[in-house]
Amino acid sequence: MDKKIARYKELIALIEKYNQDYYVNNISDIDDYEYDQLYKELTKLEEDYPEIIISTSPTQRVGDVDDNLVTSDKKIEHQIRMYSLENSYSRDDIIEFIDKVKKVVNATVKNIEFVIEPKIDGMAISIRYSDGVLVEAATRGNGVIGEDILDNIKSLGVLPATIKDRNEIIIRGEAYMPISTFNKLNIEREAEGETLFANPRNAAAGSLKLLDSSKVASRGLKLFLYSIDLGRKNSNHFDDLKYLAELGFPVNENIFKFSETDDIMDAIFEIEKIRDDLDDTLNNKLDYELDGAVVKVNDYAIRDELGHTSKYPRFAISYKYKSESATTKLLSVTFQVGRTGAITPVAELESVQLSGSVIARATLHNNDEIKRLGVKIGDTVIIEKGGEVIPKIISVDRSVENIESREIEIPTVCPVCGEALANDISGVKGYCVNRLCPAIVQGGITHFASRDAMDIKGFGVRIVEQFLEHNIIKDISDIYHLDRKAILKLEGFQTQSVDNLLEAIEQSKSQPFHRVLYGIGIKNIGRTATKLIVKQFGDIDTIMKATEDDISAIYGIGIGSASILVNFFKDDINMKIVDRLRSSGLKFEKETDLLNKTALDKSFVITGKLSQGREYFKDLIESYGARVSSSVSKNTDYLLAGDDAGSKLKKALELGVKVIDENELSTILAGS
Ligand code: IVH
After folding, report:
1. Which of 10-24, 317-331, 389-403, 495-509 has the lowest mean pLDDT?
2. Mapping DSSP to helix (H, G, I), strand (E, B) and coil, where does residue 571 land?
3. Ligand 1 centroid vs 568 CA: distance in angstroms?
4. What is the rounded distance in angstroms from the CA atom of residue 290 to the CA atom of residue 293?
5. Residue 294: in which H helix or E strand, if any?
6. Of 268, 218, 220, which is closest to residue 97 (Cα–Cα)?
7. Which of 171, 294, 314, 320 is the best mutation target for the ligand 1 pocket, counting ligand atoms within 8 Å of the beta carbon and taking the most?
8. What is the tens place of the pLDDT at every residue in 215-252?
9. Are the C-beta atoms of 151 and 138 separated by less than 8 Å?
10. Ligand 1 centroid vs 116 CA: distance in angstroms?
11. Cα–Cα distance between 604 and 619 in angstroms, integer?
């Protein structure tokens, strides 16, 4: 026990030191993940040995040391407490969160919606409008009492002074400093001999609390509002966010709404991708820091049922993008031509271990990034990997001498087809505009056949290359008009392998519309976006008729992507390919019109080896309006089990959930 108490005290001391460093001294020696591990260890000790808890433990206080920064003595008591969020780091954590939510919620509510939004790395604020006028603005403080920052917030000029809603309304959000503003500010501060801000978050916090409001304006802070806490207009969060935007408040545009774990995870990674997108041609490059995503229960009634712990709401969780780093040497740079023609510099590295895998390549994103890093061949570089993204070079370790020190040469012609390169709008990346460039053609076809798109088994990069080389295909529409005899003449193909491939291609015709649309490979339109577009418009003809405004009205799709989509269908060559795919019998409309057909109100879980991939069955089941979850619970109606089913089968049997095979699935779906 003595040992436990000693560790307990040590943990408290460590956490307090890191809090002090982070909030007061603007330094941070450990990352969020390590911090949370310490915090979790502390909570666990307190759970196991409640007798040792002391009232000054960080777990017993809502506030953070934020209070130490107090500059004004005008305090504001929050009418509604401001909570913080529990952190999570993995898919399993999210599954656990969703399961907990489902457990608490009345079993009749089966399809719980979650909203997934970026977690902005700034400072929390609370604002109040009364009779349509901005009357109060406060920091979070300790969650119960905050500081008055009304004058400072007003001086930013980013909030409407009056709104048409006359009710008492409390809105919360995050104040942040754009990265570009932060960089400029630090340059100025350096010139003035002032201490530099460690990061945009600290700069935002420091600026908001300046005593002289006129100075605040020059700091260029911005806001995103993310919740209505009093005076709600709708019965759910998502609609209230739209309402906030309507009232003229800045609301983040990358906000998604999904029910299924897979979709929620996709949205989380999509936000991470958006964050990492340094090379977007349409200025989608984010100028603010986000350090994770927040997953929130959408429905307010369900939220009320869930309630709060002493520190966190039970209806929301933050997912932190974890990044680990390693040091290695830059050997050379290859310029890769992507399926959209964008040229991406890729660093060829001396192999190194990172997050459990061996890394030999990392992205350098674009030409500006090479300049920004000032990186040369032979440099020792620090690479980082977070979530699902490919590793990237984050900095050069200048303490190690570079004997080779050779400049990286930026190509002016396409490294594959030799055509002169065009610049993208932002000028940071070269583009090959030759649509016949072998790299673009090959990338496009491989993408079409890939697992996330048409999922044509066995049709990988090598075969695509071989088919292109022998003129068996020229574009994706040729895939459905292959000449069996011609393939048989190729090296490595026997009757059986050709038949398998042709069968896989035939089967792909039943892939749902959103996969076809994603497979066609429209620049900037990712998996999540295609799903949203299909959900909104239903079929290809309606999509083609949609205007930029119609498309960008979908939450989560920006005007840039909308314009690309509209232009895509104006192009004759694209239209020819689409028409040919259509006449080959591919799906160009949503499977089941749920308005005309009653949805199958059942919940499925899929496990074991089946005749097709799980995604196939998931799409099929969902097309009937039924739900697919990733874990078996008492709310599961059917477990679709293939060969070698393991723990899910066991659990289903324990809970008395009906176990079915593929044939039974067909019967159930047909009967719906
Ligand atoms: S919701 C009831 N949504 O993260 C919890 N918070 O770690 C209210 N944050 O104090 C928070 N972006 O300052 C929410 N989209 C978002 C957010 C967000 C950033 C901050 C917020 C909060 C902190 C919790």
Report:
1. 10-24
2. coil
3. 37
4. 8
5. strand 290-297
6. 268
7. 294
8. 888 889 999 999 999 999 999 999 999 999 999 999 99
9. no
10. 12
11. 12
Looking at ligand 1, which residue's alpha carbon is closest to its atom 22? Answer: 84
Q: What span, in angstroms and rounded, lies between the C-alpha atoms of 207 and 24? A: 14
CA-to-CA separations, 230 to 181, 233, 236, 319, 335, in angstroms, rounded: 32, 9, 13, 26, 53
Could you read off the pLDDT of 530-571 as tens digits, one per residue?
Answer: 888 998 899 999 999 999 999 988 866 777 778 889 999 999
Q: Is the pLDDT of residue 70 over 50?
A: no
CATH of domain 76-320: 3.30.470.30
Residue 347 has pLDDT above 90, yes or no: yes
Which of 44, 74, 110, 119 does the annotation list as catalytic? Answer: 119
In terms of pLDDT, which residue wins out, 356 or 507? 507
CATH T-level assignment (fold) for domain 324-410: OB fold (Dihydrolipoamide Acetyltransferase, E2P) (2.40.50)
Q: Kindly state which CATH superfamily the domain 594-670 is placed in.
A: BRCT domain (3.40.50.10190)
DSSP 3-state assignment of 480?
Answer: helix
Strand partners of residue 659: 639
Answer yes or no: are the C-beta atoms of 521 and 441 closer than 8 Å. Answer: no
Helix then strand then coil, in percent of the chain rounded to 5, is 40, 20, 40
What DSSP character marks residue 166?
-
Query: Are the C-beta atoms of 272 and 360 separated by less than 8 Å?
Result: no
Q: Which of 471, 465, 470 is nearest to 446 (CA)?
A: 465
- Contacts of residue 507, Cβ cutoff 8 Å, sequence gap at least 6: 612
Percent of the chain clearing pLDDT 90 (strictly above): 49
pLDDT value for 440: 94
Q: What's the DSSP call for residue 82?
A: P
Is the overall model pTM greater than 0.70, yes or no? no
- Cα dihedral 604, 99, 114, 608, rounded to 10, equals -30
What span, in angstroms and rounded, lies between the C-alpha atoms of 63 and 145? 9
Is residue 434 within 8 A of residue 455, CB to CB? The reply is no
Q: Which of 174, 244, 253 maximizes ligand 1 atoms within 8 Å of its Cβ, making it the mutation to test the pocket? A: 174
Q: How far apart are CA 329 and CA 592, in angstroms?
A: 53
Q: What is the mean pLDDT of residues 132-145?
A: 92
pLDDT in tens, 261-278: 999 999 999 998 888 665
Q: How many CB atoms lie within 10 A of CB 389?
A: 16
Residue with tokens 């712990």: 309
In this structure, the residue with its CA closest to atom 13 of ligand 1 is 124
Check if 329 is active-site.
no
- For the residues of 565-619, what is the DSSP string, one character each? HHHHTT-HHHHHHHHHHHHTT---B-SS-TTTS-----EEEEESB-SS-HHHHHH
Residue with tokens 């943990």: 11
Is 487 within 8 Å of 472 (Cβ atoms)? yes
Query: For 571-624, what is each residue's pLDDT tens digit?
Result: 999 999 999 999 999 999 987 644 445 668 889 999 988 888 788 888 888 878
The model's pLDDT over 90-122, given as tens digits with 9 standing for 90+, comes to 899 999 999 999 988 875 667 899 999 999 989
Fold of 438-583: DNA polymerase; domain 1 (1.10.150)
* Domain assignments of the chain as residue spans, ordered by start: 2-60, 76-320, 324-410, 438-583, 594-670
Q: Are 619 and 453 in contact (CB under 8 A)?
A: no
CB within 8 Å of 138: residues ≥ 6 apart: 76, 78, 125, 126, 127, 146, 147, 148, 149, 150
Q: Phi-psi bin for 271: left (phi > 0), alpha (psi -120 to 50), beta?
A: alpha
- What CATH class has 2-60? mainly alpha
Q: What is the mean pLDDT of residues 24-53?
A: 74
Q: Which atom of ligand 1 lies closest to the CA of 318?
A: 7
CA distance 586 to 580: 9
Neighbours of 315 (CB within 10 A): 25
